[in-house]
Specification:
The complex is a heterodimer of chains A (about 550) and B (about 160). Chain A has about 550 residues and is of the alpha+beta class. Chain A is about 35% helix and about 15% strand. Chain A has 18 helices and 20 strands. In chain A, the strands form four sheets. Chain A has a five-stranded antiparallel sheet with strand order 1-2-5-4-13. A five-stranded antiparallel sheet of chain A has the order 3-14-15-12-11. In chain A, strand 11 (about 330-335) and strand 12 form a beta hairpin. The longest helix of chain A is centred in the N-terminal third of the chain and has 22 residues, at about 5-25. Chain B has one domain (about 1-160). Helices cover about 20% and strands about 20% of the residues of chain B. Chain B has helices spanning about 35-40, 85-100, 115-120, 140, 160, and strands at about 1-5, 20, 35, 55, 75-80, 105-110, 125-130. In chain B, strand 3, helix 1 and strand 4 form a beta-alpha-beta unit. The longest helix of chain B is centred in the middle third of the chain and has 12 residues, at about 85-100. Chain B is globular and about 55 Å long. Classes of the chains: A alpha+beta (about 550), B alpha/beta (about 160). Bound molecules: iron/sulfur cluster.
């Protein structure tokens, strides 16, 4: 994990002092509301429907147990004892008091965390693959590059007042768990013929009102040129992105208007001015960044099979094989080191808003991380937590601990592992509530046997077109819409995140909230009726199209 | 009331430059006139005395189109229609770094004190500020940060080349 040196620490302390001064001037009436607004946004502070909301960055999703304990302390001391993991590897506090925000930021700085640029029209938190560094399908660990880009983007003087927000994701795997295809800039680590590291560069992807898959503007960018090339993209966007209409201000609109080819050429021309200049990365800097992400001290293991720990554990495993095996099936992932695995802690038990955690749970996660995973966890885009380096022989003990703390719901990748934005309960932009929909679905589908039979299906819920719940890339997408002041829900089918991402298609007319669980049930039934051996939901849906689903759902009304 | 500041936050008194409005139609009389780009472009070559002449760009204008003249203007202004319009930051770096401009680069229009630090890093040397805040102490906005990660107009070497 990256460790701050005195430069990083100084910058963070100075940032806290600056924001303290800004907040005090605002509260004293010396700083106008509209001028404070972008300043607070650049420090992650929204004023929401009910209270301020503070979004804290978790760079590329990594948290240490010390940071988790600090977050627990902050939620307990300054908030109502719970926080919310977002779909972009951030964590949000829903009830902080404005006058206490500087103190919260000071506490965060103690554990090398911050809220810099977590909102506003600037470069946001850099996101990555939750399995970075541990997955076998990786070209290279993306985290050192994420950290290099994090530092470059932090308080970048030229790009603090962009036309619109700007999101960058980096992945080292073809599976694209970082969703690089739907980011303003997506960077995919690749090697050239000589085995040298570089990036495939995509621009103009995004969800929101106009969902678009990003276009490749550079097939291979040698890694040393990363920052000068990013500067060139951002400068072109900053100068030519639309500023007259906030709905047309994202880079995707510019790329589309110019065509990706013209955009690429403009970037290329701009880049020539800075290429090979001082911002070109040095081998020392790359080595320095990589040094923070070396593998932990794995114990050599002869590839033990699961459950072969102590004899006491074994006997329990024999008593409860189904529940444990099911959990292993759904919540445990392969690791590139034999004898280790990645383990999901599900934050989606029935009755809890997806991604919500209490202060106590944060502390428990910290304890589990210390006990089983070198004191580190990853936060996922699906709003769960991963213990990244668990010894296989510890799995049974971990399962018992996780179960006792409510983290062992074996639903990862299933329907109830939903992504859900805060929606109308918290968000002032919402057209409709989203959390109650998630809860109703959790209640309707809490039969594990059924979920297990249905298998992999992603269900994503957004409370409005801004698509924070990524409904376009859910196999099933639910979008809150407002019609004459009433809340309705539009259903989409066929979206897919990850490698070869796809955007969903609208099923038909929208539904009332209370109809949604029944509609989802019919969708699943249609899948069950049509699936052939080994097909997941999305495979069947792609094969049979949308018509059979429409028929089943709208049949009566017709 | 407007205040003109230099890079250290000191008040500049007796500044000679006069900024002419965007729809200025001429004629140019006297010295130290900062003309809108369009007027300059529309004028006959040689019709305007080059002495003590400046040009200002609006945020959507392109300094590239007059690249060969930039060095001849002792004062260049960049206009911020609103402080949320960040194009001026890019224009300043472009003029300073790509065109190696050495004269006075002035930010004017709607800028706020909390932008002064970034504006300085992008290469601006003077700032025309609408001062509404009573407790405004300009100096405190210029030295908020002693650490910068990136390359910029005032610091060519990024931090990773300077880390010790
Ligand atoms: S999708 Fe809409 S309702 Fe949901 S959090 Fe985003 S802006 Fe708010």
């Amino acid at each position: 994990m990256y460790i701050y040196d005195h430069y990083d620490k100084t910058l963070l302390e100075e940032r806290v002092a600056q924001f303290r001064r800004q907040t005090e001037s605002y509260l004293a009436g010396e700083l106008a509301e509209d001028e404070f607004l972008p300043l607070r946004l650049q420090n992650g502070l929204y004023i929401q429907r009910l209270a301020p909301m503070l979004r804290i960055n978790i760079p590329y999703g990594m948290l240490s147990s010390a940071q988790l304990r600090k977050l627990a302390h902050i939620t307990r001391t300054y908030d109502k004892g719970y926080a919310h993991f977002t779909t972009r590897q951030n964590i949000q506090l829903n009830w902080p008091r404005l006058e206490e925000i500087p103190d919260i930021l000071a506490e965060l700085a103690e554990v090398e965390m911050h809220a810099i640029q977590s909102s506003g029209n600037c470069i946001r938190n850099i996101t990555s693959d939750e399995f970075a560094g541990i997955s076998a399908d990786e070209t290279e660990d993306p985290r050192p590059w994420c950290e290099i880009v994090r530092q470059w983007s932090t308080l970048h003087p030229e790009f603090a007042f962009l036309p619109r927000k700007f999101k960058i994701a980096i992945t080292g795997s073809d599976d694209d768990r970082a969703a690089t295809q739907v980011h303003d800039i997506g960077l995919q680590l690749i090697k050239n013929g000589a085995g040298e590291t570089g990036f495939k560069v995509l621009v103009g992807g995004g969800l929101g009102r106009t969902p678009v898959i990003g276009s490749v503007i550079k097939e291979y960018l040698p890694a040393v040129h990363l920052l000068t090339y990013l500067d060139a993209i951002l400068r072109i966007y900053n100068r030519y992105g639309r500023r007259d209409n906030k709905y047309k201000a994202r880079i995707k609109i510019l790329v589309k208007a110019w065509t990706p080819e013209v955009f690429a050429q403009r970037v290329e021309d701009e880049w020539q001015h800075a290429k090979d200049g001082p911002a070109t990365l040095t081998e020392q800097e790359i080595a320095r960044a990589r040094s923070f992400f070396s593998a932990p001290d794995y114990l050599p293991r002869p590839g033990l099979t699961v459950g072969s720990g102590t004899s006491a554990d074994q006997s329990i495993a024999e008593v409860l094989p189904v529940a444990f095996n099911r959990w292993q099936d759904r919540n445990v992932r392969q690791h590139k080191i034999a004898g280790y695995c990645g383990v999901f802690l599900s934050l989606k038990p029935t009755g809890v808003a997806p991604g919500d955690v209490t202060d106590q749970q944060l502390e428990t996660i910290a304890d589990l991380a210390d006990r089983y995973s070198f004191g580190e966890v990853r936060v996922t885009h699906q709003q769960n937590v991963v213990l990244s380096d668990v010894r296989q022989e510890d799995l049974f003990a971990l399962w018992k601990d996780a179960k006792a703390m409510g983290f062992a719901t074996p639903n990862i990748g299933t329907l109830t592992d939903m992504i859900c934005c805060p929606g109308g309960d918290f968000c002032s932009l919402a057209n409709a509530k989203s959390i109650p929909i998630a809860e109703a679905l959790q209640r309707r589908f809490d039969d594990m046997d059924y979920l297990y039979d249905i298998g992999d299906v992603s269900l994503n819920i957004s409370g409005c077109m801004n698509a924070c719940g990524h409904h376009h890339v859910g196999n099933i997408g639910v979008l809150g819409v407002d019609k004459k002041g009433l809340e309705f829900y539009q259903i989409q089918l066929g979206g897919k995140a990850g490698g070869n991402a796809a955007l969903g298609n609208v099923l038909g007319p929208s539904f009332f909230a209370n109809e949604v669980p029944g509609v989802i049930e019919k969708i699943l039934q249609t899948y069950v009726d049509h699936r052939i051996d080994g097909e997941q939901f999305i495979d069947t849906q792609k094969r049979i199209g949308i018509a059979p689903f429409k028929e089943c759902i709208y049949a009566k009304a017709a | 009331m407007q205040k003109l500041l230099d890079k250290t936050g000191q008040l500049i008194e007796n500044d000679p430059w006069i900024f002419l409005p965007k729809d200025f139609g001429g004629p140019v009389t006297g010295a130290h006139q900062v003309l809108p780009l369009q007027f300059w472009q529309a004028s006959e070559p040689g019709a305007i005395s080059r002495d003590a002449l400046g040009i200002w760009f609006d945020s959507d204008e392109e300094p590239e189109v007059v690249a060969e003249y930039l060095a001849s203007w002792p004062c260049i202004g960049i206009h911020f229609p609103t402080f949320m319009d960040g194009r001026g930051f890019s224009l300043a770096r472009l003029i300073r770094e790509q065109h190696n401009y050495q004269g006075d680069l002035r930010a004017f229009g709607h800028i706020i004190p909390d932008q002064l630090f970034f504006l300085t890093r992008c290469g601006f040397s003077t700032f025309l500020l609408n001062d509404s805040s009573q407790s405004f102490e300009p100096e405190m906005y210029f030295d908020n940060f002693s650490v910068n990660y990136q390359t910029s107009a005032d610091q060519a070497e990024p931090l990773f080349r300077r880390r010790a």
